[in-house]
Amino acid sequence: MAAKRYHVTTFGCQMNEHDSERMKGMLESLGYAEAGDPADADLILFNTCSIREKADERFIAHLNQAKALKAKDPERLIGVGGCWAQSVKEEVFRQFPFVDVAFGPGQVHKLAEFLTSDSLTAQGYFEFEGFTGHLPARRERRYQAWMQISVGCNCRCSYCIVPSTRGREVSRPPAELVEEARGLVADGVREVTLLGQNVNAYGRDLRPERASFSQLLYALAEIDGLDRIRYTSPHPKDMREDVIRAHAELDAVMPHIHLPLQSGSTRILKAMRRTYSRERYMDRVALIREHVPDVALTTDIIVGFPGETEADFQETLEVVEEVGYDGAFTFIFSPRRGTEAAELPDDVPHEEKVERMQRLVEVVQRRAHERAQRFVGRTMDVLVEGPSRNDPDRLRGRTGHNKVVNFSGLAQPGQIVPVEITGATSQTLTGEMSLLSALATS
Ligand code: 5AD
Ligand code: SF4
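Above: the input record for the complex with iron/sulfur cluster. Below: its predicted structure, written as tokens.
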């Protein structure tokens, strides 16, 4: 009998990308093979997100496609995992009776239980029971890996659905993480990205011994062969000097900090329950730049939060202008069920939100373009990812600052090579790897 096949579609953030890798690894250990297309799969899985309305709509369209495929072949199984599944729980089976299994984030192992059980009735798994860290993962790239260091979040940002879907924060013990990182490095990994909803609150929940995020960074930086350590996302309120120092003192901790701003208006920040003011945020930025002057800063911004006036929005533009981010993810506020902000009057007209977004993106891009010019003329270490997307004769990789570089040269994916930067736009850099440096590469 031919091996059973699965297909996974992932929505949302890196946390979900990571969970999907675990699902794939686990399914492959159960003897499943990946199908290129859902139409060829015995098991169609969706790893869902509930952060934005848009993802939901895309997801529903995909789910209806899967329903049609199942109508043709009722043996097919359909599974829904992730944050959206968690937010609606058992209701998923009422809304979509053709779904066979549903599970929340961090419940990936339950999928194996379901697949290997004799039960054919639909099942849902929504209690957090543990991390997926011990499950095999199938990495998209041999030399890059994600490590989940915590789940959940103790913050109460009024717009965010995460606290209700992923629960209170639970950290993994540092020794376990160091061991996992060692294993990854032995398996060819050079770059890890540490994942958590609020990574710099890491370890405070651990008993008997608490741990801190900076301690974790120092411990990981000692691992030979682990060349690049990244993380996402920190909360500005918890961005303390110890973590900033780790950037300054440890070569392996990359010079990039993603520091979600959300709004530049103290009034709106308060309504968002972010617990910092515009001034406190700017103090953090100043402290970071004092210790790591060349750092790349990126951010997340929401426009059109309930009650956001033109004056509030102007403050956001001012902060973006002042900080000069290397990049930003911008979001239009959308009310999520069960959040505090969903109860507030969503009073900024949609056209106004769209217009603010456009104005914001313009400033973000202009500043990112200006900031990127500082790289031109420098020779930077680039982790090669493969051929360039637009020109297969060139290569693509990332600098320590997390900038994509398209460059000419000869190198294999996973190598770190020096590239002279010759041009910069707001999004990408261009460069050349010299033959001489090619001889000297690692
Ligand atoms: N509406 C719009 N954007 C949101 N984000 C989180 N919740 C919402 C929401 N309800 C954005 C925030 C966060 C990023 C991951 O998604 O900017 O940092
Ligand atoms: Fe990720 Fe948040 Fe979406 Fe969950 S809700 S998948 S944590 S972005």
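Notes for the reader.
The chain has a mean pLDDT of 91.
The chain has four domains: 5-125, 139-253, 255-372, 376-441.
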